[in-house]
Every structure is written in C-alpha cells, then in structure tokens.
Design a protein that fits this description.
The protein contains eight helices and 48 strands. By secondary structure, it is mostly beta strands. Strands 10, 11, 12, 13, 14, 15, 16, 17 and 18 form a nine-stranded mixed β-sheet that branches. The longest helix has 18 residues. The chain is globular.
Length: 765
Amino acid sequence: MYIVNIDLDGNVDISDSFDINLDAPQFSKIGDEYVISIYNLTTIKCFDSFEFNTYGSIKTRYLTNYYRVSRDKVRWTPWLELNEEIANFPLFDHKDTMYLEIKFIRSGTNTTGVIKLLDYKLLGNAMDNSVSGEGVVIVQASSCSDCVSELVIKPPYIYKVFSISDYEIIARGDTGNYSLKYRFSQDNNRTYTQWEPLTKENISTIRINPIRFFQIQYLVEYTGTKFVKIYDLNLIGDFQNVTLDSQKTNVYGTRQDCNSVMASVVGDTATNIANANVSSNFSTSNCNVNNSPLGAADIAKLFQPYQQTQAVNLLNKLSADSNQLFGHQVVYFITDPDKKGIDYTFHEYQLYNYICSDTIKVSVEGNNFPDNQITMNQFDLSLFESFEIHIPKDTFKSVFGPEKRPSKEDFLWFCEVNRMFQVEHAQQFRNFNNSALYYKIMLKKYSHKANVIAGDKSIADKVRELTKNSTIDELFGLDNSLDKKDVANKEQLKPLTQDVLRQVVNVTIVKELIENATTIVSKNHYDLSDVEYQHTAVVYRNFRKYFQVSDNIGFTAWFRINNYTINDSHNFITYYDSNNNGLKINLESDNIIVNLNSDTYRFNIGVSGNADALLEDVWYCYVVNIDQRQRKMNQWIYKRNVDIETDASKLNSTVLDMLYSQQNDMTPVEFELEDTNIEILGSDMRMTNIRLFNEVIPITEHNRLLNQYILGDDSKYLIFADNANNKIYLPNYSFSQINTNIVRGEVGKVNTGFGQSDSQSPPMN
C-alpha cells in the first residue's frame, strides 16, 4: 500500500516498495501493463519528479511510464508521459480532491526475461500549513481525537539579528494545551535549522550570524479540544528590520503593531495577555499617540523645505520607465555566501552558492558594450574588458525580494550578445537629494570558479548550458586532475613533551594498530585493567565546568572488553560529583547506563542481566548524542564489518556495521562542577579514540568520524580528544638556563629538572 507524506513545508512524498519474491508487479511480455491508483489526495498543487527501480531491465527491455489526473474519477486528462523531471503537470486547484493514476508498460524489442517493479517515489508540492501571523492566528482542535493540530507561523519581515535575550507570547483561549517550536534560516530559505522547543534558554543561546539576514518560523502544536488565539509572538533583543528599510527595533514580532508585554505597551486593548514569558504590567497605551497641539491637517500646511518625497518618487518612476523602454534583458544569477565557508578571522567569504535566477532589464552606461577583440597573455584569456550597467533598486527588489541586492560573484547572461559577465563591484549610486535610486554595477568577463556552486540542479543545468565549452576547467580538465594526484597528504599530528590534555595517566598505554580496511583508526590504546577496579585510570584537565539546559553533548569511543561478566561495570567517562551532578556513562550487564544529574537512561543492547550481547576481544565503537535542545538521547554501537579481528585490514570498505541503536526522550539538565575533573575509571576493558563534543554528531557523519585518527574540520566542536598517545619524556631545563654549577671534568651531567642529575634522559614511556 502506498504511503503519502506531506510535511510542514508543503513537500509531498508518495512511495511504495514491493518484495521481489512476493508481491512485486511482473511484466513478462511486451505490452504488459500495471496501473497504480492514488485517490483522495487533498491540498496537492502539482508533482515535479518521479523515480522508480526495477529488476530485469536492460537497454532493450524496460518500462515506460504514464500518468493521468482527475478531479472526480469521471473526467480524466489524457495519459501523459511520466519522466524523471515532470515538466508538463496540468494546472490543478489545491482546493479540489485529486485522483491520480500511474501506468507502467513493458517496452523495448527484447521478448525474453521478466521485469519486476521494486519501488517508486513521486515528489511534489502541496499547500503548506502556514500563515504569515500578521493577523490573529487561531488554532482549532483537530477533528481526529488523537491528532495534533499543527500550524506554521511565518513572520513576513526579514531582519538582521544582533542579539536575542528573551521572547513573549500574547495569546488567549486554551493556552494550557499548546506548545511552540521554532527554526530559522540565514541563507534565503535554502536551508533551515531543526525544529526545537521555543524556550528562553534555547532562543537566547542559538548561534546567529549578525551580518546575515534572519528569517524565523514558529510551529504551533495544539492538543486541546477547543482553540487557542495567538495575537503576537515577539523576540526581545537587538534587531534591524531589512524589510522596512533598515529600521532599528528591539522587538521582532509577527505583526506590525505595538503589542509587547515586556515593553509595557499593548496597542490592542481587547487583547487578553496570557502565557507571557515574563511578567509585566499591562498597559493600554497607544503607539500612535500624537502629543502635538496641532492636528494632522495643520501639520500638512506647514512649510517643509526638505520634503522632497514627490520629486524623488518622480525621478524613481522616470528611472524605472526608461529602464523598461531602453533596457537590455538579461538572465541574472544571484549568489549567496555559504555558511560553511565563512572565515571569521580574515572577515571574508570563501564559498558561494548561486541560489536563484530570473530575467531582468538592465541599462548599459552610454549603451557602450565592450568589443569582441581577443587578448592573450601569460595569465589569462581575456575576451572582454569591464563595463558598467545600471539596475533600478525597485526593479531588482520586486524580482528577487527586499533582502537581496547585487553583490560580487553574481553573474548575468546578455541574450543579445550571447555572453556571460560577472559582477566585479556593485554599489547604490546616490545623486538627487542623496537618494539611491539604482545600483551601479561594474562587470567583467565571466570565469567559472570552483568555490561558487549551484544551489540546485535546475540552476546548475541552466548555467552549464550557457557556458558549455567555455570554462578553463573544461579546456584543461585532464591536466588539472593529474595535478591533484601529485599532491600528498601531510602528517597532521606531532608529539609534544608537554601533555596539555591529561593530568594523570595510571594505566599502561599499549601500542597496537587498529585498522579498518586501509584506514588506521588508532595506534595506541589504554589497558584499563592495569589499575584497580573502579579506581582512577586517566584524569583529564577540566575543560568546561558549566553546561546549560540548551547545551548538547556528543561522545564517541572505541572499546574492547577483556572479560565480559555479569554485574561488572565498564566505565566510558565520569564527570560526576558526590551531589549527583554531571555526566556518567557505564556498561553493565548488557545495559549502557547514562546518568545525567539524578536522571538515569538505559540503552538495552541485550537481555537485561546478561552479558552476552558483546563479544570479548572485539573492538566496538560507542556513540551517544545528548540533544538537550530537541530533548532526545540517541545511542549507537558499531563494529568493523568482519568476523575475525585480524582480517580487518583486508576489508574493501571502511563502512562500519551498526549493531544496536536506541532513542530515548530526556529531560534537559543544567550542572556546574567545581573541583571535579573528567576521568575514566579502571575496568576489565581497553579504550582509545575518546572524544567529547559540545554538539551532537549527525548519523551521516558517524562512519567518517569513527574512522578518523586525527580530526579535521570537526575539531571546532571538540571539548577534548584522546588518542591514548604516549607522552615523550625529554630533559627539562630551567627557563633559558643551563646549570652553571657543573663540576669541571664531569662532562655530560646536567640538571634534568626531575630532581636528578644524570648523563642520560629518562626512558621513554
């Protein structure tokens, strides 16, 4: 039976899969058909892509696909060809119920063999369950008794956010049975953060780039039987309103009004304040109170020598009209910096995405296009010189939105001269009355750059078609690939004589290669059985004392149990005090027990009370994500995909085998530890690659991180990483001094700094 999934953003996913040996549709001869009927679809606007997998298809034996649509199951459209990209979907009113049929037909010239349909997936768009929030938002009880009413509020304003200190909700009705979540985007709605509960701790500690535009969405989930009315949702902090011409504000709400409990101002006196985040005196003052003794008519009659609005508007209209009459039509591609490539040290962007494109008219200064003379030099192949164009501000913003403006790395296609140009410089040009009516843009020849990539496939295809056989990468691609193969990886880890990670190491460090295919996972490990049971084995320096309820934690380790017995406790990490505050993780009797303050969470990897879920003398990987923002705890156990440990180096793939996984709901905690260090206790176990992060580890990154001996880009999220390396012991001289009291004739005896004088250095550990 097919599955229909419609998410909160209006994305539709209809899919089904078949068992190849049981119910898979079979096509034995040419012309065999199979029709899938998908009925009673609501709020659907269109479908835009389709994919399927088969068994038995070859170049001369394959399936062709068709579809048709109806509103009443009586009148249908003709059978239309169903391609991977659906470009011919008929116009459909989302208010009507949609009936859809998909037909598979065996085609080709080969009459032998059988084709079986394994699965299919149809992707499209529906009306998203969202409102702007400019009016009163009413969330009614769901018609289903066990269902949750959901509604997304999208404030219509775009802001720059410098800081957020709190939030407030102005609502009435059944305010005890709803909850709020939020997410935000800082790349023009391309990607959003995960939904997380709207709390003061979460919203005030999120990482926001103050120079990037900020767009937020709220998810209202109502579980009651009546309704709840939300009049306003306000963020309290320091903001700049980009939509309303860079107005400075301290409240970021869903409505353009003055309702704010924290500001002690409520413009709508009928609003009942409930469920506000902080208590505040209710005030019925009006933001538009006019304290002037003159009326509006009297003020209009006053002499206003600097009032140039009408003249500026006229000039703006003339500029836009002349652009429409005499402008040249171009395809303009907007680029936007990628958040992964922001260099905060040098204050520059390194990676860009071209995210959207549209046709727009531009004016060429003096109508002087560059000539087509080719210039060759030792640095570049210069086809054109730079030249200047103008784009009216209102025209640009009406096409691309108020939050976008021309910037360096944008590029555009001149249809009339069949050439692509790149923006070298863009600025608002101010002339009459210091008003900026248009952008002055300097263009140069376009060259494809590796750090500028497409935001989606359609834009990439459009650019590729326009620039085919014209880029340096295409002309010299083979030589470029050969150059990359000549680059060797450099050593990333150098041993130091000063251990900045560990305070105490009471265990033996064993030198042993742990390999996974051709990858070296570790070179050393701790033998925790070398110390007394449950006594201190390794003590780390206290890297972080305070954890808030909005702080996430990630932890990974490789471990191997020597003797796995019931009721023996194997400690992964202990950051716990005598008052039951902190974090502690232990393995005991097929249970991994995570203690967060006084709360206990159990990860059952076998039958409780037994000790047979894990094998002795086998290396395993343990991963735990304590996601306090989402209130979820996820745990996994992996191993190398091999039955005999000595065969691990012979594997063809480094993909790890997931043995166990579990997700638990959790309650966020807060703790601050004094005079308590992170440590590992002795047990009959071996450990290495012990890593503690201040962020959760996405499951898609587990295999990469667990196979890394040295962390790269992810080290910015580290609290500490311990590869069980040996400390190198060398003579330690006093600060910039040599012992001058050496007795003449006793050459080679120096002060080692360890309370001894010897001609030999202490032995290596």
